[in-house]
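Hey, I was hoping to borrow your eyes for a little while. I'm sending you its amino acid sequence along with the backbone structure tokens. Take your time with it, there's no hurry, and the full record follows here.
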Amino acid sequence: MLVNNISRRRARSLCKHSPRWFFSSLADYGFRTPPSLVPEDIQSPRRCFGNTETGTKKKEKPRYKPPSSLNVVGLKPLHSDLPFDFRFSYTESNPATKPIGLREPKYSPFGPGRVDRPWTGVCAPAADPKVKSVDAQEELNQDVKLKKWRDKIQGEPLSEAERKSLVERSLRHHTKRQVNLGRDGLTHNMLNDIHNNWKSVEAVRVKCLGVPTVDMKNVCTQIEEKTGGKIIHRQCGLIILYRGRNYNPKKRPVIPIMLWKPQEPIYPRLIKTTIEGLTIEETKEMRKRGLAVPALTKLAKNGYYGSLVPMVRDAFLTDELVRLDCNGLERSDYKKIGCKLRDLVPCLLVTFEKENIVVWRGKNYDATGPQLPSDDDDLFSPLSKMEDSLEKKSCYSSSQPRNEI
């Protein structure tokens, strides 16, 4: 009896660990395995080997097909009540400057048929672009409506103790939650990132570096207008953005996501053949002298350029030409910096040759006239000496030379 038990155990282990072709080969010789020795997963020949009577195989399961982002069959276009035009970047694009051409057809970066706003090649306007005239009173009412909406969300102003508490909880030594604003400035998709952070915290930290920091006041204005929040602290390129007392994450505005970066349109050339007010020979001589003057400063890659505008204004008090060393920067970056200097200083662009920005103060420059306010002025006073030192360490790196921005 002991021998019979051992033989049965060996037979069961053999059937359990034997391959499937072992049983099919025995069936060719007319041998039928007892049901007690056949494993459970191959007892049903129809389930494992198909229907042996008809010779058909098991129907294969269809392969998984992931949904396509361009498949909009049966989907309704997304509608957003935000009253401003949707642009890829709100700080690096000027609505007043009209392009002279497009580099690609007018493909919407939101995807075909996903948003109920047409793409003009530059933006997706809130109003119908086919309408030739828009009532000015209607635009004014829209601005008033937007202001009332922001005031309703913000509620009562924060007290000094509440503001200090929010800023303290948003600093780097308390949380790693941060939104980075880089060379493209305040992009459209960043609005969605800020609102996603506002689900968990009342204030979010925004770190600004690169080209947009030349005009920090414009960055702060665009952030407040496009998000509906309020800046409660700013030091160098670091911003603390508060969502408001009455903010409800479940009633956040609908923000469609751009699926790809649109191609930048073609704008007029920044450097003309001749500088305004000069002849061709004088222009050539000025460009040659501009490349020979000592560099005012060297611009670091992805640095903070908030003090660049007042630095150029001070240099124009004694020098006619100013050169900025841009070695290592992208050509598109220092072209944008030169365009900002032209509007903020103001000055005339001379050349971008050999990775330099050369600007001229012009013939009618008045050194004794009133100077424009500096764009590097802090909007809020530091909370304490400890916070002031922490923020300065985040803005300036000890590895950079003193004359490097």
Q: What stands out?
A: DSSP finds eleven helices and eight strands in the chain. Confidence is low (pLDDT under 50) at residues 45-49, 377-402. The longest strand covers residues 203-208.
